[in-house]
Amino acid sequence: MKNMAPYPLIPLTPVAMMDVWKLGIMAYELWSTSFATIAMRNNLWQTQPPNSARMLKENQRMVTEKLEAGMETGFEIQKAMLQMAFGNTSTPWWDTGKRAMTPYHRRSSANSKRLSRK
Predict the structure, then answer these.
(1) Beta-carbon neighbour count of residue 82 at 10 Å?
(2) What is the secondary structure of 56-107 as a DSSP string?
(3) Which of 2, 55, 81, 84 has the most CB atoms around its CB within 10 Å?
(4) Which residues of 5-32 are buried (b: 16+ CB within 10 A; e: fewer)?
(5) Is the pLDDT of residue 3 over 60?
(6) Are 37 and 115 in contact (CB under 8 A)?
(7) pLDDT in tens, 25-38
(8) Is the separation of the CB atoms in 105 and 26 below 8 Å?
């Protein structure tokens, strides 16, 4: 029986291997910037009054960004699942993973840079 999947689970070409490497780097950056952002926000919560304008703005920004990133990631996953449901399996898992992680990675990196300046 012929294999119907055009992409194997294991990347076989140098370009695919580089894409998997980039996905791993992105995951590591997301992990490290998330920890840094959590630590800096925790420091803000301990040193600022909870009803100050700065803290209210930061808390509102945090919740809004998480909701937006979650919706963007959900849309990417939904697109991938719809493609699979309609038989279009031309996108390998490493591309789907990178697209799904990008909204959180972008926001986490920006927050870490922004909070470290203050």
Answers:
(1) 10
(2) HHHHHHHHHHHHHHHHHHHHHHHHHHHHHHTT---S-HHHHHHHHHHHHHHH
(3) 55
(4) eebeeebeeeebeebbeebeebeeebee
(5) no
(6) yes
(7) 999 999 999 999 99
(8) yes
AA identity, residue 93: W
Q: Is the pLDDT of residue 5 over 60?
A: no
DSSP per-residue string spanning 37-63:
HHHHHHHHHHHS-TTSHHHHHHHHHHH
* Interatomic CA distance for residues 45 and 71, integer angstroms: 26
**Using CB atoms within 10 A of its CB, is residue 81 exposed (0-12), middle (13-18) or buried (19+)?**
exposed
pLDDT mean over 95-105: 92
pTM, full prediction: 0.78
Question: CB-based contacts of 48: which residues, under 8 Å, 6+ apart?
Answer: 54, 55
**Bigger pLDDT: 12 or 64?**
64
